[in-house]
Write a structure and sequence with these properties.
By secondary structure, the protein is α/β, with parallel strands linked by helices. The chain is built from 13 helices and eleven strands. It has two domains: 7-212, Spore Coat Polysaccharide Biosynthesis Protein SpsA, Chain A, CATH 3.90.550; 222-313, no CATH class. Helices cover 45% and strands 15% of the residues. Helix 9 (226-240) packs antiparallel against helix 10 and helix 10 (249-269) crosses helix 12. The chain is globular, with a radius of gyration of 19 Å.
Amino acid sequence: MQQVPWLSVILPMHQGERWLAATLDSLVAQSDTGFECLVIDSSPDDATFRLAQSYADRLTLRTFRRPDLDNWRSKTNFGFQQARAEHVCMLHQDDSWLPGRSAAVRAWIADAPNLAAHLHPSFFVDRGGRRLGVWRCPLPDNGLPISQDLLITRLLVQNFVSVPSPTLRRDLFLAVGGIDESLWYTGDWDLYLKLARIGSFAYHPQILSCFRIHGDSLTMSGRQNLHEFEDQMLLVLRAHIDSAPVGLRETVLRKANASIRVNSSLAAAAGNMTNALFQVVGAIAGLRPWEVYEYLRDSRLAERVIPRLRADLAGGH
């Protein structure tokens, strides 16, 4: 019988051959093996599928041609259903792992297998893989279970989790219904908030993955329909604001609404950063002084914007 993997890695693909080799090479390079990789490909041709299959001699690979699954949410949900391991990671076709990630994750799971999620920071990288900055979470990075109130109140302000960061318990993912497929931009944010309601998270200090910034990303695509872009964030906030402690709910709501206005302003800027900065200042002007500090801490605004500016200046989009 084939050995049951200790980890499943879900890779939703669509015409991903541009960066797929780098993504799969980062998995091949891991020193701690025994994990499986599920490639779910919806491409109209077989280029991505054939490239993925060429790694079958180097990875425990399961490949699925599913043109009927036309978005990353449906492919991810399908992958979790098919996964054989108790713990699962998501890895998009343009992102990658750093050496040592699998060994670190395996150790975390061994120490705390019942946590809903283990998180870590990621590097922002540009099209060519140049590191632009670090995407951190505003959480204690001691690897211990985080207070549910602290996690939820900060996560409601901004989704600060990069997609290649979390390792999730498969049973809890399925218990909360997986990713809401109607949320094309905020499906992962909604997922983390659903999991935070029923389980504990831990955050570890090691930077173990890369998140690629480029012009085809969902953030860039969101500029094309700003009303829908903002609605996606408002839907998640309204669905989960009741999970914030009653005494903090009002201030969390103010910071979260300011965060949504800032994100929308930045998306609308499309290169006009002077105009965007005026709108950002206006969005946070209504916050109290301590709320401004907390918003900047929880939103990681500088950490998110500076790498994108560097990518723009270098032609990274």
